[in-house]
Design brief:
The protein is of the alpha+beta class. Helices cover 43% and strands 19% of the residues. It has four helices and three strands, in the order αβββααα. The structure holds zinc ion.
Amino acid sequence: MTRADTLAEQRAYLEGGLAELRCGRCGARVRAKKSSPQQTSVQWTTAATRECDELAALAADGRPTALVPSCPSLRDSIERAVHEGRLEVA
Ligand SMILES: [Zn+2]
């Protein structure tokens, strides 16, 4: 992949409505995108999965965290970001 491709991809990322957010409770940092008021996509990094107590608890239980879209507190943080205009519904 060329450098130009990488830059174009980064721009697409930002323009695609992905915003970096922190979970208000556990501080895990994720990227979130809202494609409609009902639909939110969250990208968890491995570090964030470890930081979030709620996800860590699920993982300890043997539940696959990839199937958990967010912890409940993060959902609130996303709603607040939308409300404050930090995350656009795109
Ligand atoms: Zn959390």
